[in-house]
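sorry for the late reply, my laptop died twice this morning and i had to redo everyting from scratch. anyway the thing you sent over, i finally got around to it. pasting the sequence first so we're on the same page, its 62 residues, then the predicted structure underneath. double check i copied it right bc i was rushing
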Amino acid sequence: MNSGGIINIFVESQGYDENKALKKTDEIYRTMKEVFERSRTSNRPTFEVADELAEERLYGKN
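ok and here's the structure:
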């Protein structure tokens, strides 16, 4: 199972809406682009940046 599959299952559980599913999966690209950019500019590993971004989204920016 990949992230797009998980998103599709989530959208199906709420009454399938293809446009919503496509929009959500498009967000994967933007998120990965942000992770790679932050990693490059801060010279930190992507896993560290991804964890930081997840925490920001869950708990707000520090």
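The chain has a mean pLDDT of 93.
thats about all i looked at so far, will dig more tmrw
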